[in-house]
Amino acid sequence: MDRFLSLCFRLSLFLILAFIALPILVVFAASVSPSAAISFDPSQWTLTWFAQLADRRWLDPFLLSIKLAAAVTVLSGLLGFLAAYAVAYQKCPGHEAIMAILVSPLAVPQIVKGVAIVLFLSSTGFFSLLGMPGLVMAHIILTLPFVVRMIAGAMYNFDKRLEQAARILGANAWQRVRFVLLPIIKPGLFSGMTFAFILSFNNIPLSVFLVRPGETTLPITVINHMEYSLDPVLAAVNVASLAFILAAILLFEKLGGFSTQLHGGSK
Amino acid sequence: MSSNDIEMVSVTKSYGGTTVVNGVNLAIPAGEFVSILGPSGCGKTTTLSMIAGFAQPSVGDIRIRGKSQKGVPPEKRGIGMVFQNYALFPHMTVEENVGFGLRMRRRPTSEIRDAVANALRRVHLEGLGHRYPKELSGGQQQRAALARAIAPEPSLLLLDEPLSNLDLKLREAMRVELKDIQEQLAMTFVYVTHDQDEAMAMSDRIVVMQRGLIAQTGRPSDIYERPNSSFVADFIGKSNLLPIRQLRQGNNAVVVCLAGDLTLTARKTEGIAAEDARYCCMRPEAVRLSLTADDSAVSANRLQGRLTRIVNLGAYFDCFVTMNDGTVLKSLVRSTRLPGLAVNMPVFLSIEPDAIRLLSH
Questions:
Q1: Which of A53, B216, B230, B240 has the fewest CB atoms within 10 Å, i.e. is most exposed?
Q2: CB–CB of B74 and A164 under 8 A?
Q3: Threshold 0.95, pTM exceeds
Q4: Of residues B35, B32, B29, the one with CA closest to residue B5
């Protein structure tokens, strides 16, 4: 009976993984197929579509998206840390209400947020902020709730007696943050920043309102291209950005060591 | 220049409407091992965190080395502290933990290295410096926490029930080591505990607290032999506490009539007017149990009863003797003296008048 159950679990796990992975496999096959018809025959596979990615048409949006995601990641990590420090760590007056406000953008659909930001910028005369500055701000509104939640979670779990121990050993406020708090909540900080990076790099609903002609992000460029043709270069773009995001996640994990947190480990 | 490391001047601490510490006056001389002892909720931990600076007195002042600590944050007080759960930094090795205090003070690297090695040697953790706290046993973590606290060589060390998470054997060994370290370093130790054995074993002085007040202060032997209240008598060690029903004055001695039909002769207790005596207190080891009536070892206060329960403590028997009127007296008997004791035996008790203390409350 136990063996039967264990078999069922394995089977369902396999099906779930297949459900997640199969679309990606199809996109991968499309990216190496010689024509728009997807081929699953490896002997026909070709890398010609990937060669087109070096074209400025794709390279510029890709670099723009990286710049945008990097700025959003760093800024929302910084702001998220400061917000969580006040709300979750110092428990400033009204911290529960402030936390609710900080995560409230989650409840607003991205399309609505996008329209609201464009209307705000145009009605206040900040139209010039469209493009990169507007994108960064809009993406931070999107990512901040995730980052704050992640860091706050780590801070709520932080043993305050460590702070007391550091204090009595002579550490001032800055030293306590730098040498005790930050290293211990680092996994939460980095997993929050990873979310910010992925959300920003892949974002369409917000970016679509804020990009300027000749200055578009990679996902918007893909959408625009799709309106005219559905050629395999799109699949190649997707595979390339998927690989890039995976590499970024691995880098963040290396720096922040958050897999231990996700797996419930310690240290 | 004051020779007191800590002076608490009518310190009161209230949270909302609750007063946790109530007008405490306490002077702790430099180099003493002082225990603050009391049941949970007596205010001992609050007292410690006010000395450390984690809590501020609502009223009164705390002076450390003669200086008022009003507005002085914990990081500026120059004291060490060992926490109940050790509070070791989990992301640092033992060496980094121990060197933390000196690093924060920006001492030269070579000085930190020597101080860390010294502190680790003192707590017998040589060779474990590269481990992380979670790779250590509970006892080793305890030692690492102690090493971290003493490495910057503070003149004053606060200890918040540091042994309560260790098993009995280790606890007893650590008592001896803590006392040795305190004497070698000539530091002032303020040790908070609810364990009276710990306090008795290590302290130069014990401060017994009860409901935010100091119940009694004194050397361990003073407090054990001359408790000033039924609370202290009951909390420190075991005791037979009997309420006094009626009191008859003698010339040098006081005759005490107890609940029921027991009549005991006690000597006057210093500091208590005979008419104020409400309780009398006898330590179980002062209640001598014998199987025959004509035990010549003790002169006065001969009682007769029945042995109703024996708790075997190994070296001793904890004997419960029920008198004819139902009063139960405890007697501690060395097991080698009366090896044949059994429940339901008729026994005789005798108590020296000197061993009976009168208490007013």
A1: A53
A2: yes
A3: no
A4: B29
